[in-house]
Amino acid sequence: MFSSLFAWLWHQPYILLSLTALFWAGNAIVGRAIAGEFPPMALSQLRWLIAFVIVLPFAWRHVRRDWPVIRRSMGTLMVLGLTGLAAFNGLQYAALNYTTALNSVLLQPVMPLLIAACVFALYRDRLSVAQIAGIAVSLVGVVIIVSGGDLSTLTGLSLNIGDVMLLVAFVVYAFYSALLKKRPAIHWLSLLAVTFAWGAVLLLPAFALEWASGARPALTLPSVLALAYVSLFPSLFAFICFNRGVELIGPNRTGPFFHLVPLFGTIMAIVFLGETLTVFHLAGAALIFGGIVLASRKSKERGKNRVAPPAAGS
């Protein structure tokens, strides 16, 4: 039963990308909650190390089979590990020590635009009219949710060092998303194992500097549970879903799903923190979903945004 459900889910890009947004929304909340207890580089380092240890037993036979391709493509895989894992998450967790939750949510909607810019820079792929319209519609929904319908909330915001770090992190992740179009033709478990390994290795220098400065994680029950969460859901499960989603529909059409992150974050705040559901939440949610449906429509140039499929047997 589980295998048949997984086989069905493996071909449902919109569900996979929605799950990715859900896991990442939880990551932002958890990362902010333990910002004072877990140094950012230690959290990033341990996150990818644990995710690698979990996935390796399942990926080992595929890695062995794919090794000739992995060896030839090691440069690309290293860049994927650097951008999508090491640099992005290190910057993100560091930024959560300085920026507000509202600012971090407001910055999320720039991701589709950054992904589109990176895709155009690398491949000269342009957004369709439907994609541009969908991004705009869902962006309006995000603004309505985070402002509560009061635009004066937005005018009072100001950028700080944490916001700048988040923007840099989003640019880095946009490059990772675009570069997935050039992923080598290897099994998806091989891709996870190798990029997780690179993410952990490339974070070692930053982790060592942080440790040398005297920063130490407080190993309390909440911080250990938070580490377990970020190692499984925003790391292992989210990257499985996101990589597969990009493979199925391409990076440009996945961009609007980043707008679900603040929506899911709002829902979590209502469920877990007792915040109040308002008409603005409902209106914003409707616009976000409408924009995603519009932006995710297939291009007339069939297959233009898809990633080249891996070799047979992967």
Please outline the helices and strands.
Elements lengths: L1 H8 L3 H21 L6 H33 L1 H22 L5 H7 L2 H14 L5 H19 L4 H4 L5 H19 L8 H15 L1 H9 L8 H29 L1 H4 L5 H14 L5 H17 L19
Helix pairs in contact: 2-12, 2-14, 3-4, 3-10, 3-12, 4-9, 4-10, 6-9, 7-15
What does this protein look like?
By secondary structure, the chain is mainly α. It has one domain (about 15-295). It has 15 helices and no strands. It has helices at about 1-10, 15-35, 40-70, 75-95, 100-105, 110-125, 130-145, 150-155, 160-180, 190-200, 205-210, 220-250, 250-255, 260-275, 280-295. Helix 2 (about 15-35) packs antiparallel against helix 12. The chain is globular, with a radius of gyration of 19 Å. The relative contact order is 0.21.
Measured by DSSP, the beta-strand proportion falls in under 5%
- Helix % is over 70%
> What is the tally of helical segments?
15
Total strand segments: 0
Domain tally: 1
- Given the helix and strand composition, which structural class is it? mainly alpha
Summed over residues and divided by their number, the pLDDT gives a mean of 83
Q: What is the overall silhouette?
A: globular
- Report Rg: 19 Å
Main sheet specs: none
User: What is the H-and-E element order?
Assistant: HHHHHHHHHHHHHHH
Show unreliable segments: 301-314
Ends apart, CA distance between termini: 22 Å
